[in-house]
TrEMBL record:
Pfam families, alphabetized: ACAS_N (PF16177), AMP-binding (PF00501), AMP-binding_C (PF13193)
Binding of ATP, residues: G395, E396, P397, D419, T420, W421, W422, Q423, T424, D508, R523
Modified residues (N6-acetyllysine): K622
Function (record text): Catalyzes the conversion of acetate into acetyl-CoA (AcCoA), an essential intermediate at the junction of anabolic and catabolic pathways. AcsA undergoes a two-step reaction. In the first half reaction, AcsA combines acetate with ATP to form acetyl-adenylate (AcAMP) intermediate. In the second half reaction, it can then transfer the acetyl group from AcAMP to the sulfhydryl group of CoA, forming the product AcCoA.
Family: Belongs to the ATP-dependent AMP-binding enzyme family.
Its EC number(s): 6.2.1.1
Lineage: superkingdom: Bacteria
Residues annotated for CoA binding in this entry: R194, R195, G196, N197, T314
GO terms of biological process kind: acetyl-CoA biosynthetic process from acetate
Domain AMP-dependent synthetase/ligase: 87-478
Acetyl-coenzyme A synthetase N-terminal domain span: 34-85
Source organism per UniProt: Chthonomonas calidirosea (strain DSM 23976 / ICMP 18418 / T49)
Encoding gene per record: acsA
Protein name, per record: Acetyl-coenzyme A synthetase
Chain sites annotated for binding Mg(2+): V545, H547, V550
Length: 660
């Protein structure tokens, strides 16, 4: 990428600035900005101070060993993750609720730390009884139920690695991931509820396992009951409740070396074949513990809800390990945001959950916010959201319009918003406001956290001044960084460390402003090159969303003979602006082209605007721009196994090719 400022920053409305509300700042865990200097002065000590707040069975003798690109943290230290997430809290608050769960049909369960301790112990003993021991891999293919968390923690108690596969993935995806890590045991359920239907997890598991030679046992949780009609394979399949009933009540935690593997997690694959990201024990736990404490300002009475599925890294780090290491009460919800407790479509389930459970901290994804914008202001307005005190987002850049909508309609202009940039690979949040200190700017993840060091560089690796778009790099190791790709260290070196040796390359574009805030521009692969100018898709999308008719937009570059690439915009229109006929649709398309040209310059004028009801997204809700490029360029679609809904691309293709 060359150095460019084409397009300006119209989409970002740099004049918006939200200092922390004084009443929030007064009570915040972190109030003193000197934390950044302290971390910069000695970043190893900074992280070691957090690590020391955890329970270690044996102290480390060295904080960091850095042989680029391989890091080891807290060398010689021994600890157990389940002890830190559960046992540790029995001393101080055994009867506090650890998990507050709600099923889609409205059924509810709570587990205190004491109860969670019992369940984790029993299930660890149960897993051990079927042959799982330290270093083995266990695939977890489960719904959002407390047992998913119990299963993860039970693996860590034994020292087995888990590989959680999102419960919405297909048999092929499950098979590929199970084989890649060579799992011995698969944990699943008969099914779960999604928009009033049963998702038949056990059936899909059976299909996947026709081609998984390493799997010896399958443990099946009964979530649905009779209606799920499943078959159990004798000798291989065991009911969870039967296995636990005959297991001892206690399982002593395995002392794990700080660098022993904790889990492998396959990334969602927005950009291609999934990569098995490997995280280890001491550094990872320190990273998620510290960032949860800093970014979410956790207090003993908080009711904390991260809406991510445990199948994603956000679910690992901020549903399970980070909050439980902090002894927090975690809300979990099984189902869809647009399905009510009485089994009907709705647009306010999340707001209903917040009101009933008095959620204080909400951490969700831009895709949910954009869907809510499309549904309008009325659904959240029906609910009392006054318990909320802090909001967060993760997963994609959040358009400033969506940020402001969230701020107004959910946070009631009272709650700080933390826009957190990080990845499966980074394990923990990297760039984010500290809510008691940072002046936030809609659309910017603001600054690297204390102890994290980032830069924006050009193609050659030279640091770029403020206002210039370039490539994000992380310049120093951090505790929760991935250690390698499972079984493929060469790919690890090549993907993340070959572009700028010694510096980590996340694959995202970024720009800094004069105040040192980072503005994420989307994936480097998605940045367009039009007539020699770099154009950020993020910026064009944010401008489109500023138009009152637009709820969501995805911009891609289509190969063009003269310009190199031409921008093409796929746009979802807000319900009340839906054009009534072809002529109205054409008028709107023209209007949107002019709107972008006026705001960002003629060079950014989209060649095509396609009005669509939906965009291809990963199961975690991220727009898959590479498939939109395939459609626009008339190519065979690339890997679509991680798509949430394959019919969306099929329909778009028909539409694009004018057959509909
Ligand atoms: P794959 O790497 O397999 O294509 P993925 O990148 O979608 O999958 P994740 O690790 O879940 O899988 O996502 C990390 C990416 O999400 C980041 O690299 C970035 O592009 C995007 N992202 C996450 N949070 C933010 C944020 N707050 N602002 C901007 N982008 C974000
Ligand atoms: Mg990625």
């Amino acid at each position: 990428m060359t150095v460019e400022t084409i397009g300006g920053t119209a989409g970002w409305q740099l004049d918006y600035a939200f200092p922390p509300p004084p009443e929030f700042a007064r009570q915040a865990n972190i109030r003193d900005p000197e934390i950044y200097d302290r971390a910069a002065a000695d970043f190893e000590k900074f992280w070691a101070d957090f690590a020391a707040e955890l329970d270690w069975m044996q102290p480390w003798h060295r904080i960091l060993e850095w042989n680029p690109p391989h890091a080891k943290w807290f060398l010689g230290g021994k600890l157990n993750v389940s002890v830190n997430c559960v046992d540790r809290h029995l001393k101080t608050h055994p009867d506090k609720v650890a998990i507050l769960w709600e099923g889609e049909p409205g059924d509810m369960r709570t587990l205190t730390f004491r109860q969670l301790h019992k369940e984790v112990n029993q299930f660890a003993a149960a897993l051990h009884s079927i042959g799982v021991s330290k270093g083995d891999r266990v695939t977890i293919y489960m719904p959002m139920v407390p047992e998913a968390v119990i299963a993860m923690l039970a693996c860590t108690r034994i020292g087995a690695m888990h590989s959680v596969v999102f419960g919405g993935f297909s048999a092929d995806s499950l098979r590929e991931r199970t084989n890649d890590c060579g799992a011995k045991v698969v944990l699943t359920a008969d099914g779960y509820w999604r928009r009033g239907n049963i998702v038949p997890l056990k059936k899909t598991t059976d299909e996947a396992l026709t081609g998984c030679p390493t799997v010896e046992k399958v443990v099946v949780l009964r979530r649905i009951g009779e209606q799920a009609s499943i078959t159990m394979q004798p000798g291989r399949d065991i009911w969870w409740h039967e296995l636990v009933a005959s297991a001892p009540a206690e399982y002593p935690p395995e002392p794990m070396d700080s660098e022993d593997p904790l889990y492998v997690l396959y990334t969602s694959g927005s950009t291609g074949k999934p990569k098995g990201i490997l995280h280890t024990t001491g550094g990872y736990l320190t990273g998620v513990y510290a960032t949860t404490k800093m970014v979410f300002d956790l207090k003993p009475n908080d009711i904390y809800w991260c809406t991510a599925d445990v199948g994603w890294v956000t679910g690992h780090s901020y549903v399970v390990y980070g909050p439980l290491a902090n002894g927090a009460t975690v809300v979990m919800y099984e189902g869809s945001p647009d399905w009510s407790r009485d089994g009907k479509p709705c647009q306010d389930r999340f707001w209903d959950i917040i009101e009933r459970h008095k959620v204080t901290i909400l951490y969700t994804a831009p895709t949910l916010i954009r869907a809510s914008m499309k549904w309008g202001e009325e659904p959240p307005a029906r609910h009392d959201l006054s318990s909320l005190r802090l909001l967060g987002t993760v997963g994609e850049p959040i358009n400033p319009e969506a940020w402001l909508w969230y701020h107004k309609n959910i946070g009631h202009e009272r709650c700080p918003i933390v826009d957190t940039w990080w990845q499966t690979e980074t394990g923990a949040i990297m760039i984010s406001p500290l809510p008691g200190i940072t002046t936030t700017r809609p659309g910017s993840a603001t600054k690297p956290l204390p102890g994290i060091f980032a830069d924006v560089v050009d193609e050659q690796g030279n640091s770029l001044p403020p206002g210039q778009k370039g490539i994000l790099v992380i310049t120093k190791p951090w505790p929760s960084m991935l250690r390698t790709l499972w079984g493929d260290d060469e790919r690890y070196k090549q993907v993340y460390w070959s572009r700028y040796p010694g510096r980590y390359f996340p694959g995202d574009g970024a720009m800094r402003d004069a105040d040192g805030n980072f503005w994420l521009l989307g994936r480097v692969d998605d940045i367009l090159l039009v007539a020699g100018h770099n154009i950020s898709t993020m910026e064009m999308e944010s401008v489109l969303v500023e138009h009152p008719a637009v709820a969501e937009a995805a911009v891609i570059g289509k190969a063009h003979e003269i310009k190199g690439q031409a921008p093409v915009a796929f746009v979802i229109v807000r319900q009340q602006y839906a054009p009534q006929d072809a002529a109205a649709a054409e008028r709107l398309r023209q209007e949107l082209k002019e709107f972008v040209a006026k705001k960002l310059g003629a060079i950014c004028r989209p060649d095509d605007v396609i009005l669509t009801a939906d965009l291809p997204k990963t199961r975690s809700g991220k727009i898959m721009r590479r498939l939109l490029r395939d459609i626009a360029e008339g190519r065979v679609l690339g890997d679509t196994t991680t798509l949430a809904d394959p019919t969306v691309v099929a329909n778009l293709r028909k539409k694009y090719e004018g057959t509909e």
